[in-house]
Amino acid sequence: MQRRKLIKGAAAALPALWLGKSYANVLPNIAAGLPGEPMAKGPFKPSWSSLKQYQVPDWYRNAKFGIWAHWGPQCQPEHGDWYARGMYEEGSAQYKSHLAEYGHPSKSGFKDIIHKWKAERWDPEQLLKLYKQAGAQYFVALANHHDNFDNYDSKYQPWNATRLGPEKDLIGGWAKAARSQGMHFGVSVHAAHAWTWYEVAQRSDKSGPLAGVPYDGKLTKADGKGSWWDGLDPQDLYAQNHPLSRNSENNGNIHKIWGWDAAAGCSIPSKAYCEQFYNRTVDLINKYSPDLVYFDDTALPLWPVSDAGLRIAAHLYNHSIQKHGQLQAVLNGKILDEEQRKCMVWDIERGQSNRIEPFVWQTDTCLGSWHYERDIFEKHRYKSAKTVIHTLADVVSKNGNLLLSVPVRGDGTIDSDEQAIVEGIAAWMQQNSEAIYDTRPWEIFGEGPAIDGAAPLSAQGFNEGKGKPFGTEDIRFTRKGDALYAIVLGWPANKQVIIKSLATDSAYYKKQIQRVALLGGEASLAFERKSNGLVVQLPENSREQVAVALKILS
In whole angstroms, how far apart are CA 345 and each of 115, 294, 332, 359? Predict the structure, then answer.
């Protein structure tokens, strides 16, 4: 009965604009106890035991490298990640910049940032052509973030990019551009956490001239009369018609309640909220048929307080089978236990595993801040092409893929520093991608001092840059067919490479070595196999590279 009341109220809050179109029958169906979007039929059921049937498709296992546009309305201010939360945290840098540029969050909230975002210079075809040249085999676009705004033609979220802001189907545009380049297409979905993530928008300043004046997080449709958002309900965006989590005051740590732990003080989402998220995401899958869905959640969205994530996973897999005749879909999840890693692809955020993993996994990282931050560009603080290439070699050697976010400005472009970095990646990949694509791990992933100095994983990952830096003694191995590839993470000053793991008494490579070549060249290199390692002499006229890829044949 309570669930029916919640849904009825939400339906009443939907503007006539939506009810006159495709939204008319959405919430009444949920209120009647029926799902708005049926789960696709097939061998996968919404349970962990059923999802263990999952097998990673070959396209993903072979692709190794993808690029991500983590782009939405939070990029409009160009003040970095989690802007839609930080702007409500009194005293924070984002709060101060919002106050200076847009006004107080009681009068100008995140909904008003959406209104200003136009993406007026967005050219997905141009960007995807560049990313394809850089060697990306798949591309992922942000479908929604914790800010709860859908960047697509959403049947279940009135606050979406086809109606507000850019007034364009951004996911549709990205999908078309990626597929025109022959790339697999994916979407990232982050909106499950809006319920708790936006709780800061319920608060007010504790000091200053507007102390005690509530921010705009509790506004409703009735408050919008005569405004630009007249007829829209901010609660469809902010989802704050609920009590605060116990730790939300005094800028409580959102990560402590990330796993929906009521004992830690988390406010638990309503059934209506969970069903809304399920329907939005299934609608996304049905409309755009993504090859990959990335969830920014512990295990699956809303787990364990709802089975919505399990139903979405089963739907994605069954939908893929119906479309392709076999399972071709990839699902990324974070902080997975050993059993859950059999059900989907484990994603490590801003970090790498320190071993060869038994199942294919993925590192996701970013050149700078996840949402565009102008200060990083102005101070030239992006990751270099060298760092990206070293990370790629390290990840691939351990049975992983690299998903690299290239931050996009609010207007839809990338800046000149990013352009140069992507072109640097392209130059290396054009010569050396043979050692990356379609490869498998060797007996060991590598050698060198960085292995002993590796930092452990923490939570979602976050060991990036915390270990010993890579140098010319650090080598990563991959294999394909009869070939072994050794990727040296630097350029030796004396143009001599020593691979200790291939010494005469190597336990890993007992065959005779017949030929060593530098990728991109035809000639064999001079080499000698000694007790201290395989000693390879690089050509005198060879051009310095950020990483040297050698092909070794028996």
Answer: 36, 9, 5, 8
Place of tokens 């059993």: 339
Residue-wise pLDDT tens digits, 274-330:
999 999 999 999 999 999 999 999 999 999 999 999 999 999 999 999 999 999 999
Under a CB-based contact definition with an 8 Å cutoff, are residues 7 and 27 in contact? Answer: yes
C-alpha 171/C-alpha 153 separation (Å) is 8
DSSP H or E stretch at residue 368 = none
Q: Is 278 helix (H, G, I), strand (E, B) or coil?
A: helix
Amino acid at 292: L
Q: Classify residue 314 by its DSSP letter.
A: H
Is 88 in contact with 201 (CB distance < 8 Å)?
yes
Question: Which residue, among 67, 65, 64, 72, has the nearest Cα to 130 in the 3D structure?
Answer: 67
Contacts of 469 (CB under 8 A, 6+ apart): 450
Q: Say how many Å lie between the first and final Cα of the chain, rounded.
A: 72
Residues of the chain with pLDDT under 70: 1-35, 247-252, 454-459, 461-463, 466-467
C-alpha distances in Å from residue 393, one per residue of 62, 176, 396, 454, 471: 14, 29, 5, 15, 13
- CA dihedral (19, 110, 71, 168) positive or negative: positive
pTM of the model: 0.92
Nearest to 433 by CA among 501, 480, 465, 364: 480
DSSP readout, 373-422?
BHHHHHTT-SPPHHHHHHHHHHHHHTTEEEEEE----TTS---HHHHHHH
User: Tokens 């030796």 — which residue?
Assistant: 492
- Model pLDDT, residue 15: 35
Joined together, the tokens standing for residue 543 give: 């051009």
**Which of these, 505, 499, 489, lies nearest to 525 by C-alpha position?**
499
7-42 burial by CB neighbour count: b if 16+ within 10 A, else e? beebbebbbeebbeeebeebbeebbeeeebbebbee
What are the backbone dihedrals phi and psi of residue 262, each rounded to the nearest 5 degrees, phi first?
-65, -35
Strand, helix or coil for residue 126:
helix
Which residues make beta-bridge pairs with 189?
144, 295
What sign does the CA torsion over 252, 253, 255, 257 have?
negative
Note the pLDDT of residue 30.
40
Q: Which two tokens stand for residue 186?
A: 């994916």
Buried/exposed 160-189: b ≥16 CB within 10 Å, e otherwise:
bbbbbbbebbbbbbbbebbeebebbbbbbb
Q: For 440-491, what is each residue's pLDDT tens digit?
A: 999 999 999 988 876 666 667 656 776 678 999 999 999 999 999 999 999 9
Dihedral, 364, 366, 369, 370 alpha carbons, nearest 10: -50
For 189, phi then psi, to 5°, come to: -125, 120
